[in-house]
From TrEMBL:
Organism: Mycolicibacterium pulveris
Organismal lineage: Bacteria, Bacillati, Actinomycetota, Actinomycetes, Mycobacteriales
Annotated transmembrane regions: 12-36, 75-96, 108-127, 133-149, 156-172, 202-221, 297-321, 333-351, 357-374, 390-409
Residue runs in coiled coils: none
Protein name per UniProt: Uncharacterized protein
Keywords from the named record: Membrane, Transmembrane, Transmembrane helix
Keyword Transmembrane helix: yes
Keyword Acyltransferase attributed: no
Length: 414
């Protein structure tokens, strides 16, 4: 087969892969919107507000409280949906920037099509729409800006804006700055090619420190004994609750196929599961993790670690850019990266979603690695036939497996 014929055949293959990605995305949307609508869980992040004083995680609910009572559910669902839409737009922009570097280069196409099937991408947005999706989108924006801007002042402004946004998100969920600190450090250290050490230090301080300060404020100043007061103001409405029906595999399938109904009163559910969290502290979180069990935690950790290893391998294999080349760009800043990673230790200590924590660590590293790889000359190397074949199988499989839905292995979500 001639080179032109081979190129045409592979172009058709990548087009078919793209079509399959769209079909799979529609299937996932059907699952989360119709077959297994789990919004009752994710809406809990927007229940607390500041009506009875400052509380952690209260900013999202406070925005909703500013609106008339009749718009409560419209506003809550809008905020939940906005996090998903913003993150998917960020992924789309990232894919476009990968492809726009050198149109027609095969490895760019492979890397761009790999992005939506990674654990932190499409299925994470649809099956695990936590508020950190806003922060993840902000980190993508920061990374892309640093990659394409050469002057100091815009870079400093971008880092300061990012730090301010992450600090604000800390009042929606206090773990967000800790979850994304590693990504910010890697983006600032690796992506700009000519940043001076002095500017780098200022950018790091501007991007990371405000979020950490906000975390400390949320933890130290938030009122604890307001759960019952907030409970009283939560409106009543019967909404879908698939978790109540998911007592066994058969019951779950019965619910998904419409053979049984499962609804709960929004007020009662939030008063039972959401508002009591506001009255817990660090030691309560540690105790909850300890009671979860060693085996489930270990299994959750291993699965998350496999996500990290698999994602790193896939980026290296399909982009042609070795991970060692990426790590060398840290240029003696390994201590900063380790310190940023260490901020995840309190998160692991106080919450059992250990697989999810690894997904976020994977995101921090992978999203910067992807942007870095897209700017490297290695990505222009032709892909072999075996690499193209492996790519098709990897993407076709990963897009149908909801890897982003995994919070932890074993135990209950509540």
């Amino acid at each position: 087969m001639t080179n032109a014929g081979l190129a045409d055949k592979r172009a058709r293959t990548y087009l078919l892969v793209s079509v399959w990605l769209v079909i799979a995305a529609i299937i996932h949307l059907f699952v989360v919107l119709v077959a297994y609508p789990s919004a009752i869980y994710w809406l809990s992040y927007y229940v607390p507000n500041y009506e009875f004083g400052f509380v952690r995680r209260g900013l999202g609910g406070e925005i909703i409280r500013m609106l008339p009572d009749g718009y409560y559910f419209t506003a809550a669902y809008t905020m939940l949906g906005a996090s998903v839409v913003v993150w998917l737009i960020a992924l789309g922009v990232l894919m476009w920037r990968i492809l726009s570097g050198q149109p027609g280069r095969e490895r760019r196409v492979m890397l761009a099509l790999l992005v939506p099937v990674l654990p932190f991408s499409l299925t994470y947005a649809l099956y695990s729409p936590h508020p950190e999706l806003f922060g993840m989108a902000a980190l993508v924006a920061l990374g892309l800006f640093l990659t394409n801007t050469r002057t100091a002042r815009p870079r400093l402004i971008a880092c300061a804006l990012y730090g301010s946004a992450i600090a604000a998100l800390a009042f929606v969920h206090e773990a967000i700055p800790l979850q994304l600190a590693l990504g910010a450090v890697l983006a600032i250290v690796v992506l700009p090619k000519d940043m001076s050490p002095a500017l780098q230090r200022i950018c790091l301080m501007s991007a990371v420190v405000p979020g950490i300060v906000a975390v400390l404020l949320a933890a130290g100043l938030g009122r604890k004994q307001v759960g019952s007061l907030l409970c009283e103001q939560i409106p009543h409405r019967m909404i879908e609750n698939p978790y109540a029906a998911s007592t066994s595999v058969q019951n779950t399938l019965d619910y998904m196929f419409g053979r049984v109904e499962s609804k709960s009163d929004y007020h009662d559910w939030m008063c039972r599961y959401a508002t009591p969290i506001l009255e817990s502290n660090f030691s309560d979180g540690v105790q909850m993790v300890a009671q979860f069990g060693v085996l489930p935690l270990l299994a959750s950790f291993i699965v998350g670690l496999l996500y990290f290893v698999g994602t790193t391998w896939a980026i290296q294999f399909f982009s042609g850019v070795p991970v060692t080349t990426f790590l060398r760009e840290l240029r003696g800043n390994y201590v900063l990266a380790v310190l940023a990673l260490a901020l995840m230790v309190p998160v692991f200590m106080t919450a059992v979603d250990w697989t999810r924590w690894w997904i976020l660590i994977t995101f921090d590293v992978a999203v910067v690695y992807i942007m870095y790889a897209a700017s490297r000359p290695e990505i222009a190397k032709p892909a072999s036939r075996s690499e193209a074949r492996i790519f098709v199988w990897v993407v076709a499989l990963l897009v149908i497996v909801p890897t982003g839905a995994a919070l932890h292995i074993g135990g209950s979500n509540f």
